[in-house]
Amino acid sequence: MAPHAEEPKPDSGVDLIQHDGSKYGDWRDDFHRDGSAIVKGVITPERAEYYKKKQIEWLQSFKRGFDPNDESTWTQDHLPVSFKGGMYFAYSSTHEKFVWEARTEPKVIDTFSKLWGTEELLCSFDGMNITLPRQKDLTWSPWPHTDQSPHRKGMQCVQGLLNYQPNGPNDGGLILMKGSSKLFDEFFRENREQADHDDKPPEDENFKDLFIFKEEDVKWFEERGCKLEKICLEPGDLVLWDSRTMHYACFPQGDKIRHVQYICMTPAKFAKKEDYELKAKMFNTWQGTTHWPHCNIRVQGPPMRNGQVCSQNRSEPLEKPLITDRLLQLAGAKAY
Ligand SMILES: [Fe+2]
């Protein structure tokens, strides 16, 4: 068989979706052109409302005095520990019943199935984002980044977020540079250093699949016709992007709380045996992962409050998910 006719293998530098340029007449055309797409109405507004309510209840379950109607309680002291002021990965939250319900919404799975051309998928155990506008004790600076290491070439992962709240130009949310994924391999042909940002991962650190860009790097992409854009969304929209796409989140300027669930699925056949086993172990112990479903599966560490593990850390979700064969397959805990 000629090399190009073989099925692409992860980390061989080849795009994992070999798109021949044919048109679908739906969001897949956007995705293959820009490296990102908005899939409209993947869940109903009613379902989005349900998930919003569950997220708020989850914040309140820590009984630290957080009140969604009283802004004076919108501080770190009243909330469980988050990353970047709103991303929740810890406390086994990535396995809460409502989180798995979102991942297994029929059209969520269907979207990833259509993208990859298979129903045999693995799902990431990544977090949700609940960002409160005007939270006083937060410092915020842009961190344009990709969640794919420069050492991985080609299209290797597609990540996504399911949006629950109307999200306009002033609301906190995703800023994304359309088309930047197509320039990733060219950009990293030269040796590039990460920006000296607070979140820069230590060398040889856990988060290998993260690169934070410098201002001059952003310009490099802009000179090639790309532009950072705020993505506006309605409740129920799912955004997908090639993990080589430059992105970050802006802090909410409006009145609305940001409510999002990160969801990412890739074909199960991409996972190595040891990654499959590790994933099953993470699931069985209710631990979270990175955005990557089939590899880059890393322990996220406990939530730290004032230099100590948060005394309210949890080793299991508050409400366990309803275990079905489909869920176990997506979790990597049951073979296809
Ligand atoms: Fe990211």
Automatic annotation (TrEMBL):
Coiled-coil parts of chain: none
Top-level taxon: Eukaryota
SUPFAM superfamilies hit by this protein: Clavaminate synthase-like
InterPro entries: Phytyl_CoA_dOase-like
PANTHER family: PHYTANOYL-COA DIOXYGENASE-RELATED (PTHR31630:SF6), PHYTANOYL-COA DIOXYGENASE-RELATED-RELATED (PTHR31630)
Name of the protein in question: Clavaminate synthase-like protein
Organism: Periconia macrospinosa
